[in-house]
Design brief:
The protein is mostly helical. It has one domain (31-120). The chain has 5 helices and no strands. The longest helix has 61 residues, at 31-91. The radius of gyration is 29 Å and the shape is flat. The protein starts with a helix and ends with a helix.
Length: 121
């Protein structure tokens, strides 16, 4: 096992000392070449960032969200909900309907802009 780890480390050190991207890209010799290279990079940068965000970052965040939501629903959610209802029961008041209030707010936010403007007056 130690031999495998040592071999992998040696390969990583060798590959890091000879960057492959530097072999494929020539060093610009003039200011015009440098400017063309810079503009080329700047033109490709937004698409590269968007591609990385959509194909790598978002799937990771979505899977983390699904995992946490699943963990919450299966383990902690019901316990916290029961504790919440017990605490509200001690005050002698009825438990607030958070989900119902959320649905009402959601419907109000989905109203047309003109309807909300008319409601102001």
């Amino acid at each position: 096992m130690k031999k495998y780890i040592a071999g992998i480390l040696m390969i990583n050190i060798v590959l890091a000392s000879f960057p492959l991207a530097a072999l494929a890209q020539e060093v610009p010799q003039t200011v015009g070449d440098a400017q063309a290279l810079g503009l080329n990079i700047l033109q490709r940068l937004p698409n590269a960032v968007r591609d990385i965000w959509q194909n790598q970052a978002l799937p990771i965040w979505r899977s983390m969200w699904a995992w946490v939501k699943n963990l919450w629903d299966n383990t902690l959610g019901s316990k916290v909900q029961g504790l919440w209802e017990k605490l509200w029961g001690l005050t002698g008041q009825k438990t607030p309907d958070v989900k119902g209030e959320f649905q009402k707010e959601k419907q109000e936010m989905q109203k047309d802009l003109w309807e909300r403007f008319k409601d102001l007056f």
